[in-house]
Write a structure and sequence with these properties.
This protein is an alpha/beta fold. The chain contains six helices and 34 strands. The strands form eight sheets. It has a seven-stranded mixed beta sheet with strand order 7-6-3-8-13-10-14, sandwiched between helices. Strands 16-19-22-25-28-31-34 form a seven-stranded parallel beta sheet, with helices on one face. Strands 17-20-23-26-29-32 form a six-stranded parallel beta sheet, with no helix packed on it.
């Protein structure tokens, strides 16, 4: 691949890089996302909505904006939902190839499983990262450093849950340690789950075996002086826990991460879809994003950041405060929802009070006047 040539795009959009060949990406989306249950009991993490759009769709739009033309989806858990929604990628503008794991292969093993599609420098993404890191600048850094692998690095307050890198003045990673104790961390720079990888690295990964980049590949590359880190202070979050999933939705609706959402960056307080009926005396304090065909009845109060999906029905005198509602949610009169996530096809009964951190799975009915205490989880297909 020849050194990149920067191209300025029209309409003020971000720059992208022409690299002399089509850039490919592998998206690691095969896990069961157990930390996000009950949100992921009936759907893969790639399909949970961020600001009313499936997470994977944001991801693919982000890649396309940098000129990525082909993505290999490394799938395992509930792959048909992803294939049925995205098809071959024509609607998104990124050609999609599905690589299925019949058993967990780890981060490196999943990429090795897709080796037949990878004949030039390629990107790898962990499928739980929401970010607007500048991939063009990262690619330029990679070419300058002549690395075999470049890892995106971001600073965090507590690095103990991540892979931690110690870098020199050139960006070379002198040491890489996976999930060290907080007092043993070499720095606060952590692996952001975004890699630029030379296909030569695939020779280091055994075929058909479980293998992790973080433990089995990166330490050896670091010892050989071939592992570099691109440092960024751009927006980055791992959506893999309920608290971070809720934060990611708040940030997306508020425009804190560059996703190109309609109105999100303009300060517009209400972003409503088509065929909505919102009572004139409903009090909406943005930012609030409302999907298509929603009904919001008289006297209701909605405080942002809040995302409400398609075909939701909000009754009279309801309070919704910094919550996320998926599609086809009914909230009956007088209910109060605060800092919670309500999955699709669920009914919240009259007078229900749902407090901070509650998660309600799909196809649930919560009976009238129930008090759902802080942090409670209700699994799918329940009446409670």
């Amino acid at each position: 691949m020849r050194p990149p040539r920067k191209v300025t795009r029209k309409n003020g959009e971000s720059d992208k890089l022409e690299t002399g060949s089509e850039m490919k990406s592998v998206i690691l989306a095969g896990g069961q996302a157990t930390r996000l249950r009950p949100l992921t009991c009936l759907r893969p993490k790639a399909m949970v909505p961020i600001a009313n759009t499936p997470f994977m769709e944001h991801f693919l739009n982000y890649l396309r904006s940098y000129g990525v033309t082909e993505a290999i989806l490394a799938l395992g858990h509930l792959p048909d939902q992803i294939r049925d929604y995205f098809g071959n990628g024509d609607r998104i503008g990124v050609r999609l190839i599905v690589s299925i794991e019949d058993r967990p292969l780890g981060t490196a093993g999943a990429v090795k499983n897709a080796e037949r599609y990878l004949d030039d420098l390629f990107l790898v993404f962990n499928g739980d990262v929401l970010t607007d890191i500048d991939l063009g600048a990262m690619l330029e850094f990679h070419h300058r450093s002549r690395a075999l692998v470049t890892i995106a690095l971001v600073p965090v307050e507590d690095p103990s849950a991540y892979g931690v890198a110690d870098i020199d003045d050139t960006g070379m990673i002198r040491q890489f340690i996976e999930k060290p104790p907080r007092d043993k961390a070499l720095s606060n720079l952590i692996n952001a789950g975004i890699y630029l990888i030379s296909p030569d690295v695939l020779k280091r990964i055994p075929s058909g075996a479980f293998s992790m980049f973080e433990k089995d590949v990166f330490p050896g590359l670091s010892a050989a002086g071939k592992l570099y880190g691109y440092c960024s202070t751009a927006y980055w979050i791992d959506i893999g826990t309920p608290a971070k999933y809720l934060t990611a939705n708040h940030d997306a609706v508020a425009g804190r991460v560059k996703l190109g959402l309609r109105g999100a960056l303009s300060g517009q307080p209400l972003i409503a879809g088509t065929e909505c009926r919102i009572a004139q005396d409903a009090e909406i304090t943005g930012p609030v994003m409302i999907g298509n065909k929603c009904v919001i009845a008289s006297g209701s109060r909605i405080n942002g950041p809040t995302a409400i999906g398609d075909s939701c029905r909000i009754g009279r005198n309801v309070v919704i405060d910094q919550a996320v509602l998926w599609d086809n949610v009914t909230v009956e009169d007088g209910a109060v929802l605060r800092h919670c996530v309500i999955c699709s096809n669920t009914t919240i009964g009259t007078g229900v009070k749902m407090l901070d951190g509650c998660l309600v799975g799909e196809n649930v009915t919560v009976k009238k006047d129930s008090l759902i205490d802080r942090g409670c989880c209700i699994w799918p297909d329940r009446v409670t």
